[in-house]
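User: Good morning. I'm curious how FE2/S2 (inorganic) cluster would be positioned relative to this chain. Could you predict the structure with it bound?
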Amino acid sequence: MNSKLIKHAVINPDAPPESLEAKQPPVDNGTERYDTAPYFSAEHMRAEWSKLWTQSWLIAGARSDLKKQGDYFVFDIGDESILVTHTAEGIRAFYNVCSHRGCRLVHDERGNRNVFVCPFHSWSFENTGKLRRVFDEDTFRPDVIAHRPGLTEVACEEHAGLLFINMADSPEPLADAIGLPEGYLEAYNIDKMRVVRHVRSEWGSNWKVGVEAFYESYHLHTVHPETNGVMGDLNVQYDLYPRGASRMIVPLGQPSPRMKDQETVNEGLQMMLQDAGIDPASYTGSAADVRRDIQIAKRERAKRLGLDYSRLVDGQLSDSWATGIFPNVQIGCHPEAAFVMRFLPHETDPERFYYDTMTLIVPADDPNYTPPAWMGLPEGTDYSGAHRPDCEHYGIDEDANLGLVLGQDAALLPVVQKGMRSRGFKGQLWGEQEQRLRHFHVELQRWMNKE
Ligand code: FES
Ligand SMILES: [Fe+2]
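Assistant: Good morning! Here's the predicted structure, ligand included:
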């Protein structure tokens, strides 16, 4: 295999340099090998909590989950729980804790309420965080509650249909922290999408092992061999952006260059044609034509269905633009859907994390319009967007029904975690297909080295 091909894969060499598709200039992140202790040690876990999780912008949820005034959801991370509410004054976020004796205030994951009543002594709060009522107020000496203790606010900002929170005392503006070019996420109209599935499952590794596994396509040929027929794993374009952000463009609808047969329209390609509205039985092209024909078909279908693909280039119609936002998110960007995955630290165990995924799709009136089958949404999923499903929670030994590919990752990650513990392992050695991992670690070091 030609190593130059791997290093310099470019999806569209004709893309103008200012386009979102253009290959970004290389970033030299060195060749350093990093310490493995941060994958196991409780001390490092605490350091990450104080220096990273409580200081950086984190995706708390989808803006479309707070459509009506009074809508709220709770975002749990580590030991904290954040209440995000749609108030008369816009979207606000608070620590989910009563100011009286510290009882957790809200226990439902989502709902619609303008007033929150504490389950301990029934103090109540407006959804703007304002203290509304102290039960038996006349039994308090006035000095104790003279400051009318409301809920403690957390910074909250919206970007491209996603709500971010930040627990820092004076956080930088979200726009400065994202790192992606303007218009990048906006092009996908995530603000018009609706959550159709939300799963939070516990996995047996450090959260960074999770991020790393999803930031490269190097492992597809071994862990996910079924993708060989439909994913150009060696033609992936890797791009690094400021602030630890990165993306990989994975061409879909073409066989892996590792495959001998580049002609046959295999079963996987047939399924992709079908998903794009092309009848595979009467298809006359070869495997090399499938990706392009999918792009043409989707562009044409979008017009018919009134879907807005105006800001998407042809490559975005077929390919997965897997986009990483530091520290813990990857969004699989597709014209039909956004697959938002968050790697959330466990409360106490550095060798566990929560893999939290939300699938958002553009609702369409046409009942025949569904997200591609390979996205692995279970049968019976309601694509109308009319009903926001509850988050499904799965423990470490439960099958989260995430589909074949993600199931393969869930099984492998604990094996990697275990191996990394060995006295014989001296730290990860990353190749150019893993350049996003190094980029992530350089940014992580920057946060962890802050005083
Ligand atoms: S702790 Fe909430 S009312 Fe007492
Ligand atoms: Fe994987």
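Residues 213, 219, 223-224, 409 surround fe (ii) ion (ligand 2) (CB under 6 Å). The chain is about 25% helix and 20% strand.
Let me know if you'd like a different ligand tried.
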